[in-house]
Amino acid sequence: MTHFSIFSLLSNAFSANENWRAQWPEASPKSEYDVVIVGAGGHGLGAAYYLAKEHGITNVAVIDKGWLGGGNTGRNTTIIRSNYLYDESARLYDHAVDLWEGLSQDLNYNVMYSRRGVLMLAHTEHDVQSFRRHIHSNRLNGVDNAWLTAAEVKAYCPPVDISPRKRYPVVGGALQRRAGTARHDAVAWGYARGASARGVDIIQNCAVTAIRRGPDGAVIGVETDKGFIKAKKVAVSAAGHTSVVMGTADVRLPLESYPLQALVSEPVKPCFPCVVMSNSVHAYISQSDKGELVIGAGTDQYTSYSQRGGLPVIEHTLAAICEMFPMFRRMRMLRMWGGIVDVTPDRSAILGKTPVKGLYVNCGWGTGGFKATPGAAHTLAWTVAKDEPHPINAPFTLERFTTGRLIDEAAAAAVAH
Length: 417
Ligand code: FAD
Ligand code: PYC
Hints:
It is a single chain. The protein folds into two domains: 6-77 and 184-254 and 345-413, 3-Layer(bba) Sandwich (FAD/NAD(P)-binding domain), CATH 3.50.50; 118-177 and 257-343, D-Amino Acid Oxidase, Chain A, domain 2. It is built from eleven helices and 18 strands. It has helices spanning 15-23, 42-55, 87-107, 125-140, 150-156, 184-197, 242-247, 311-324, 373-386, 400-403, 410-413; strands spanning 32-38, 60-63, 79-80, 118-122, 146-149, 172-176, 180-181, 201-203, 208-213, 219-224, 227-236, 256-267, 275-278, 283-287, 292-299, 333-343, 350-353, 359-363. β13 (275-278) and β14 form a beta hairpin. α2 packs parallel to α6 and α3 (87-107) crosses α9. It is globular. Mean pLDDT is 93; it is low at 1-18. Bound molecules: flavin-adenine dinucleotide and pyrrole-2-carboxylate (PYC). The site of pyrrole-2-carboxylate (PYC) has 9 residues, from loops.
């Protein structure tokens, strides 16, 4: 057992979020929409917002089986960065970071985007080589990322212990200064508010049970537990469950769903200046504006739809955190939770059209889709509105799993999986 107190482990992980259900007005679905979006996470709500704002398409419903933002959007650890290896990813994630920078103004809702820098620690020669490769690639793509020596790591983030006698000594790090965090529930609420103000219906507590196709194979609507809803187009953004929903339209996706967990400590005064990630020791940490240390683990090693991760994984993570940051050894844990992430073979998303006319998909973000929220939503809205790929999401189609033109971002995912 680590020095973190485990006693409050089973406390009310999402009591705050449960209140959202009460705050959003209940809407009954109309019988027909131009576009139905399945999943009221940041990606689904964002797509509805951009459909309305940029394409004038407002006869849209966003349908969720739970409450808005109650999926991974309200469960993630809010790390935003764009230091991915391949050109295609750099374009997508940097597009998202560009949108993050103006998002509070755009939505007139403070999403608390904070450029505090994301520092990835290197512990081995392999880490050094991999990070340097990413840094070179990022620079060629105009994405900021810089190598720091161990002493420079310590100067940027004083709580890190860089003693060479450690089990995993810190030998340097890759720092993206433009990267940072945002407030996840504000993202869901900001997009929901913006979409709703433009006429979009947000329907909570309504599970989509099947996608229906007409005689010519094209989408005609969705079956829900509140009845059938006719739709000219359907976009599925149901992280963790997308393959189940898409399976009802006979579209098979190369996805596996895993629990990914995180926790927060009791709140303390500001003491941690940036985000630090260490994939070798399976842990990452930042401090929220409320003062809590936000700590996350790697995915559990088995597939599951459980929204709570395994105890050994989080214990391993806390041991690593206490080793890297000895000053946190006496902190107490406030709450922990899990989300279900869907993972593709190449750890990149599937985003765009499907073989079914009128059916679009946004999934496979694995452990890293929060940062992509505005970029994915923005380009998906374009694709749905025009029925054609956006230049940025064009490489992220389903076809790459048959052509073999994969976008292998396993190393850049930076979270053990
Ligand atoms: P969600 O927010 O999960 O929304 C999908 C919605 O679909 C849900 O609300 C769900 O209820 C709904 N749904 C599912 N099935 C149905 C159905 N049949 N009918 C109707 N509705 C349905 N990413 C990062 O970039 N940085 C991070 O630091 C980070 N940390 C993470 C930490 C944890 C613990 C977890 C779990 C994830 C983390 N992620 C992170 C990943 C990130 O949270 C997700 O990739 C992203 O939030 C996905 O957003 P979304 O809108 O697609 O999905
Ligand atoms: O993608 O940066 C990330 C991330 C951090 C924690 C989970 N995902």
